């Protein structure tokens, strides 16, 4: 797609893929921040059954729980993984 965009005179040729990807990222960001919520409780279009399923079905990570550094994990460097 980038080659095709570069071949067009639209948006100056070779800069066109950068403009298109940048515009798509801006649209994605606006949609992401407009449609997502911090928690299921704050979501306006969630049903009570769905909220109960989400909150009762899985373990939530605690804020005081440390994240493991996966790059230092030995399983990434083993042949059996």
Automatic annotation (TrEMBL):
Residues 71-81 have a biased composition (Polar residues). Residues 58-81 are annotated as: Disordered. Residues 59-70 have a biased composition (Basic residues). GO terms for cellular component: membrane. It is found in: Membrane. Gene3D superfamilies: MFS general substrate transporter like domains (1.20.1250.20). GO terms for biological process: monoatomic anion transport. Its main location: membrane. This is Putative transporter slc-17.2. It comes from Portunus trituberculatus.
């Amino acid at each position: 797609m980038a080659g095709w965009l570069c071949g067009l005179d639209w948006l100056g040729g070779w800069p066109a893929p950068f403009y298109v990807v940048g515009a798509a990222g801006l649209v994605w960001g606006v949609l992401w921040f407009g449609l997502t919520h911090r928690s299921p409780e704050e979501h306006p279009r969630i049903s009570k059954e769905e909220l109960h399923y989400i909150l009762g079905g899985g373990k939530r990570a605690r804020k005081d729980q440390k994240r493991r550094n996966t790059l230092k994990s030995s399983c990434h460097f083993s042949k059996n993984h």
